Amino acid sequence: MFRTGLVLAALSLSAALAALGLSGRAALADAYSQVVDNSTRGRFEAPGWGTSSWNDGRYGKDYRYARPAREARPARYRVKIPATGYYTVYARWPADRGYNAGTRIGVSAAGGLRWVRVDQQRNGDRWNRLGVFRMKAGDRFYIRVSRRAGGGKYVIADAVKVVRGRVGGSGGSGITGYDILEEARSWLGVPYKYGGESREGVDCSGLTMKVYERFGIELPRTAHDQYYSGPGRKVSRSELRRGYLVFGHADGGSGIEHVGILTGDGRMIHAPAPGTVVRYDDVPARWYNIVGVKRIVPPR
């Protein structure tokens, strides 16, 4: 009877996978994840950091802590990325009011080191989604916790997790405005270049195209086409939410000649004009007439 039950369970699983268009082997190959704790042998290093088991919200037997310091070495996690592609990265820490509210966690993505700022006074004893990153295959120190943080409260390094593919945050699925904004921030300081599509130089629609492209979302090349024929849906001009695209005209006209990425706090990240760099600006700016807003991914 027990053997029969196992066979039926296996058949049910195979049927479910077949309904999704997946073979058992393909599904198992895609279902990759790895957890690295601060006590995982050979996969964690934190020179000069202390060790504690005081906070019960920790993952495993203990965690590492350190005071902020500009020149001190970070805590680093070595993870295995089996194949180049998109991975969702999480971090876990015990929370306390004595910990830092602006801890910086870096992820070595295919396009360079990406930084995410987290509040370690909150959301303890749970996996906190840092975002989706395109990562190159390898087995090395991909994730780090920096001691370069404001104030004097402790920075915590506990555990990290990588999961193959794009995994949504709590209450949703897929990419969110947090991911879009974090990628957009990585372009700050890149010089404006008309027709540019790289970190050597980029224009307004080239910036939005490249930011969304990182998450597998294809936008048309021009601001006009991104608004009228690109993916997503048009929303009210009052919905200035994180990760949404804002379209406008620099001279107060009604046509589409410019696009930026909203930050959700009354600003946008954009490539303004020749002689400038990718930067923050207020929305609406005195020189910028908002023509439309578009939602492509949920804000959170």
Automatic annotation (TrEMBL):
Keywords: Hydrolase, Protease, Signal, Thiol protease
Stored CDD domains: CBM6-CBM35-CBM36_like_2
SUPFAM superfamilies given in the database record: Cysteine proteinases
Signal peptide positions on this chain: 1-18
Keyword presence, Zinc-finger: no
Domain NlpC/P60: 174-298
Protease recorded as keyword: yes
Pfam families the record matches: Golvesin_C, NLPC_P60
Molecular functions per Gene Ontology: cysteine-type peptidase activity
GO biological process: proteolysis
Alphabetized InterPro entries for the sequence: CBD-like_Golvesin-Xly, NLP_P60_dom, Papain-like_cys_pep_sf, Peptidase_C40
Family note: Belongs to the peptidase C40 family.
Protein name (record): PgdS peptidase. Cysteine peptidase. MEROPS family C40
Organism: Rubrobacter xylanophilus (strain DSM 9941 / JCM 11954 / NBRC 16129 / PRD-1)
Organism classification: Bacteria, Bacillati, Actinomycetota, Rubrobacteria, Rubrobacterales
